[in-house]
Amino acid sequence: MKIKSLIVKTIIFFIALAILPSVTLAHKKTIAITIDDLPFVGEYRNFHLNMMMNTMVQQQVPATGFIIAKEVRNDNWGMLHKFRNAGFGLGNHTFSHANLNRLTADEYIQEIKKADSLLSPVLTKPKYFRYPYLAMSTGSKRNAILCYLAKKKYKVAPITIDSKDFAFNQRLLSVPELKRRDYLNELKPFYLDFIWQQTAKAENQHHHNAEQSQILLIHANLLNAYVLPDIINLYKEQGYEFITLDDALMTYKHAMNCKKMKPEPKIKDPEPNIDSFIAWD
Ligand SMILES: [Zn+2]
Fold first, then answer.
1. What is the pLDDT of residues 244-256, one digit of tens each?
2. Pairing of strands 154-156, 89-92
3. Looking at the domain assignment, is residue 266 inside a domain?
4. Distance 66 CA to ligand 1 centre (A)
5. How far is the CA of 182 from the CAs of 33, 51, 173, 176, in angstroms?
6. How many angstroms separate the alpha carbon of residue 130 from the centre of ligand 1?
7. Which among 23, 43, 174, 268 counts the fewest CB atoms within 10 Å?
8. How far apart are the C-alpha atoms of 205 and 209, rounded to whole Å?
């Protein structure tokens, strides 16, 4: 009797020894999907955005899409409502996919404003903004936009993994339509491998904060309409859990915030000898 219980205890001890380290040491890897350039890159095909949406609904994967307001037409407005009603997030991606590096802060603010008013029936809360080309500019221009977004209660949606899917999508589109299905099967492993390399790069960059979620950038395009199920499987097989953008951002210690700039010092009574200096400054 005693020997039997000793054997049982020993077995339990070794099982515990084998399981415990993996339970305590493994951090849960999480990722949020973001989809830029809604309604769709290229032709206005609700069919393909619908395919992406159905994949995510079936796999129970949350996602947030970013809309180029200028691209919204009567015939795809309904699709955006459908996307929203299926529980996905929808954010602002400017009116005309504007590049902040090429516009003044005021021009860019008009782009955000115009998109905001056109898209208000479908934008979800909290409101998210994604910079086209990920161009955030620098210095006071960068800060002016961050402050404007903060004032309008927009949260900036960063990315950590860039799939560079537009390059793969362009290749796919360059092939005649009848040959695309075969070509897609050739292209798919290269695309998935590239996404995985980008993920590994992002994981290594964030090794100092292993708890931080990844945020994947893909686009609403033909390639992803067909490969999204494989992308989701890839991450699931690697132990990732898909979470919302809101939850992903909660793991970020440093948000991109607008900084309060020091007001310019006012010189009431400039001394005569620095007068000329001020004039030239
Ligand atoms: Zn974009």
1. 999 999 998 876 7
2. unpaired
3. no
4. 8
5. 27, 19, 13, 11
6. 8
7. 268
8. 9
pLDDT for 135 equals: 97
Answer yes or no: is 123 within a domain: yes
What CATH number is attached to the domain comprising 43? 3.20.20.370
Distance 99 CA to ligand 1 centre (A): 10
Residue 273 in domain: no
The rounded Å distance from CA 88 to ligand 1 centre is 18
What is the CA(9)–ligand 1 centre distance, in A? 59
- What pLDDT is attached to residue 2? 57
As a whole number of angstroms, the distance between CA 240 and CA 257 comes to 28
Between 144 and 27, whose confidence is greater? 144
Paired residues of 57 in beta bridges: none
**Ligand 1 centre from 134 Cα, in Å?**
8
Helices 165-173, 180-205: crossing angle, 10 deg rounding: 170
Q: Ligand 1 centre from 73 Cα, in Å? A: 17
Q: Which two tokens stand for residue 95?
A: 């009116």
Domain presence at residue 124? yes
Residue 192 reports pLDDT greater than 80: yes
pTM of the model: 0.83
Over 80: is that where the pLDDT of 21 sits?
no
User: In the predicted model, what is the mean pLDDT of residues 57-83?
Assistant: 96
Where in the sequence is the domain holding 207, given as residue range(s)?
Answer: 31-251
Q: Quote the number of domains for the chain.
A: 1
Confidence of residue 278 (pLDDT cuts 50, 70, 90): very low
Q: Is 16 helix (H, G, I), strand (E, B) or coil?
A: helix
